[in-house]
Write a structure and sequence with these properties.
Blueprint (H helix, E strand, L loop, with lengths): L3 E6 L3 H16 L3 E2 L8 E6 L4 H17 L4 E6 H5 L1 H5 L6 E3 L7 H10 L1 H4 L26 E8 L10 H5 L3 E2 L2 H13 L4 E6 L23 H16 L6 E4 L9 H8 L7 E3 L7 H7 L5 H15 L3 E8 L6 H14 L3 E6 L17 H24 L6 E11 L2 E8 L4 E5 L8 E4 L3 E2 L5 E4 L7
Parallel strand pairs: 1-2, 1-3, 3-4, 4-5, 6-8, 8-9, 10-11, 11-12, 15-18
Antiparallel strand pairs: 6-7, 13-14, 13-16, 14-15, 17-18
Helix pairs in contact: 10-12, 13-14
């Protein structure tokens, strides 16, 4: 039974990628996509469990779907399912549960459910720790032909004290090079010019298999050599006609070695935009988080990137109010963030996550304190975004345009520089998916670069 299907994704870009893959598989099976609103026959919610807040939002979306149509089939998929299988089986708002390992079988799961609802309601979720191979869930995005996310890896072996991901996503599993390149060629053929490599822990790409390689023939054991596996993938993608930009997803600081940076700097398609996951600018807090570097190490990685790229975008994540974080420790983080001059800082308040080591730690921080600390980091981030954008004034930048928008009643094209700085171009031209070299003349309070087409006269 095909019908009208609606989709909603919570959490990370990997979840978004997998939601799109499930969407494409249902469309291929004859389902019609409709908005996530009343009227759908099937609601697919790809859940998140990175924090207790994410758990709550996942439950809320599942219940909201059932409220929109009590007769619809509500599918709970993803990470929250892996952690709360039994609770979801008992939840009357949920009709089908689909674990991370089962997402590629959604059409078959629905077909079995419609054949025998009572028998198929509580589908067993695979023990993710037992999953050894990468789950091939390929799809080619349709519609917007500008930037595409390309999943190359799943799972994580880090076991940070605040994180559930290794438990719900499993250990590192890497996608085979041939599949990555095949999908990239399809994306290029559909007009995509920028590829964003994504995964749960892409710095570990290739750690889990003997790698036949595109340029190398032997397996690698050390962390440093593992970098070559990711390098080979990047080189392979760069060699595909039509791909002008390659953007790397979140990287662990450890992968940033002199050799790695020197090698990627020689690949012109790689964008000078790097997200290094930091979480805290205080060494004692980093130890409690079980992060595998010091602030000194992290600062050296930033210096390496700037040595080879000049003014690359260096972005990061910070968790404020981690258990035991004193005022002095927070002050260290604030100073460190200020000294590094990130182009963008993503700030998160620590959220207790049941089942993690951090949830059992002494010194849980009151919500008001976490909020106040977050506010200081966010205020610093706003200033640094503008300062970084201003560094490009009067110089030519490369902009890939993505969409048309209206700002203060005037038509603009919105795009991004290679450093992922947003760019507003006041023009009446249709330049979507075009790359232009432009000289910005101003910066908005939000850190956006702007320029005006000299031939553009707004109505």
């Amino acid at each position: 039974m095909a019908g009208k299907a609606a989709f909603h994704s919570l959490g990370c870009k990997v979840n978004s990628y997998e939601t799109d893959a499930m969407r494409q598989s249902l469309l291929a099976a004859g389902y019609e996509e409709v908005p996530f609103a009343p009227g759908a026959d099937i609601y697919v919610i790809n859940t998140c469990t990175v924090t207790n807040v994410a758990d709550r939002k996942s439950r809320q979306m599942l219940h909201r779907a059932k409220e929109m149509n009590p007769d619809a089939v509500v599918v709970a998929a993803g990470c929250y399912v892996q952690d709360a299988e039994e609770a979801l089986k008992a939840d009357p708002a949920v009709d089908i549960i689909v674990g991370n390992h089962e997402k590629g079988m959604l059409p078959e799961i629905l077909a079995a459910y419609f054949e025998d609802r009572m028998k198929s309601r509580g589908i067993a979720v695979s023990r993710i720790s037992a999953v050894k191979e990468y789950d091939e869930l390929p799809f080619v995005p349709e519609g917007e032909h500008t930037r595409a996310f390309l999943k190359i890896q799943d799972g994580c072996n880090q076991f940070c004290s605040y994180c559930m991901i290794p438990y719900v996503r499993g250990r590192v599993r890497s996608r085979r090079p041939a599949e990555i390149l095949r999908e990239t060629e399809e994306l290029s053929g559909r007009g995509y010019r920028e590829i964003v490599l994504t995964g749960i822990h892409i710095s570990s790409y290739g750690l889990d298999f003997e790698y036949p390689g595109m340029n190398r023939q032997t397996p690698y054991a050390s962390a440093a050599e593992t970098n070559h596996r990711l390098l080979d993938i990047i080189r392979g993608i760069a060699g595909i006609e039509g791909i002008d930009r390659i953007r790397l997803g979140s990287l662990e600081p450890g992968i940033i070695t002199e050799e790695f940076v020197r090698e990627i700097a020689e690949i012109p398609e790689v964008c000078p935009s790097f997200h290094l996951s930091m979480q805290s600018g205080c060494d004692s807090t980093l130890r409690r988080m079980r992060r595998k570097y010091t602030t000194h190490d992290f600062a050296e990685k930033c210096s390496l990137l700037r040595k080879y790229y000049g003014t690359p975008a260096v972005t990061t994540d910070i968790i404020s109010g981690f258990p035991g974080e004193t005022e002095e420790e927070f002050a260290e983080t604030l100073r460190f963030v200020s000294d590094i001059h990130f182009s963008r800082t993503h700030v998160f308040k620590y959220s207790v996550r049941r089942g993690t080591a951090a949830a059992k730690m002494d010194g849980q921080i009151p919500e008001k304190v976490k909020q106040a600390r977050s506010a200081k980091l966010i205020e610093l981030d706003k200033k640094e975004r503008v300062v970084y954008a201003e560094s490009f004034l009067g110089t030519k930048v490369s902009v890939l345009f993505e969409e048309r928008a209206v700002v203060s009643g005037k038509k603009v094209l919105k795009g991004y520089t290679r450093e992922y700085v947003p760019f507003l171009y006041y023009t009446g031209q249709d330049l979507k998916n075009e790359i232009l070299e432009l000289t910005p003349d101003s910066v908005t309070p939000a850190g956006e670069l702007t320029a005006r087409d000299p031939e553009y006269t707004p109505l």
